[in-house]
Amino acid sequence: MRDVAKQAGVSLSTVSLVVNGTGYVSDDMRDRVQRAMESLHYVPNDLARNFSQNRANTIGIIVPTIRHPFFATLTASLQHVLAGKGLQTLLCSTADAAHGEAAYVDMLRRRLMDGIVMGAHTEHAPDYWTSIHRPVIAFDRTLGEGIPSIGSDHVQGGRMIADLLIRTGARHVVVIGGPHTQFKEDDDVRTTFPTVRYHLVLEHELAKVGVRYEYIEAGEVMDFSGYAAAVRSVFDRASDDAVDAVVSSDIGAALCVREAIRRGVNVPDDMQIVAYDGTYLADMAGMPLTVARQDFQALASSVADCMMRLIDGKAGDGSVDDGNDSGDAVSAVSSHGAFGIGEAEHLIPVSLIAGATTRE
Fold this sequence. Notes:
Blueprint: H1 2-8, H2 12-20, H3 27-40, H4 46-53, E1 58-63, H5 69-84, E2 88-93, H6 100-109, E3 115-118, H7 126-130, E4 136-139, E5 149-152, H8 154-167, E6 172-177, H9 196-208, E7 212-217, H10 224-235, E8 245-249, H11 250-263, E9 272-277, E10 290-294, H12 296-311, E11 345-348, E12 350-353
Parallel strand pairs: 1-2, 1-3, 3-4, 4-5, 5-11, 6-7, 6-8, 8-9, 9-10
Antiparallel strand pairs: 10-12
């Protein structure tokens, strides 16, 4: 930096301001400094700069697997939005790294990263996460009081799907999803996985009008073969136990379309199919899927904005405020109270996109 200052004919502090992007520097001085940096092939030492600012400018993102289209789309959106705020990302797929979660928490405690976005299943008790005393955001799950949680409004998503299937005359609806054990242990334990709410709401709304509801487990989120087996089991039913509507993630819904085409089942006349997520896979199923679409851009922006406030010490109470007064996001218990919505949760609306796999 001294060499740059000497060649540019400016003070060392001016070079520091240009390198760090802080304070006011005239355009002329900034150009002189940048030309000197290029001439001397000077590359700022980010490690030293971050050390002086007590920042790592790195966020850890923990997900179950990046093979799943939902988590692939989410992490891509998060990386893009965080990069726009000057933050790098370290990605941990717990299915591929046995000790990834603990290693990332250790890095956070040692200030080798500035925060963690936790989007994977964890066996740790809530006090484990609050004891870290560093920025942690729970994505689509609850980690404990004081840890902000951000995700989609799955209660809304469940109601949208129920309304659609009821209006189109569904009689026997099957939902294909992950293992129940991760959602709810027993009737006295509140679920830490908000995504189960769309299953609960869908079941509740269909039961009110006498539509049969059934849940089939497809295994862990990274078990694609489990989804294929579950789909085949639906189509193998006898005619007197026939299913006329299936709801699943984009993976399960796409597999349903393929299986229906293979077996000559008419979609949507004989079977309606609804996807839940709205990733790129929804456009590659063989026919346009009707989908409850999660807003990945809004989710990523909400996580990034909350993380910046936590890093800056402006949201230490676990509250989430995206600065949006439009009322589009839900951050109160209100009408969702029956399904375990917590006060520190920030919910992004889900939209229902009509495709060719449901009746009008």
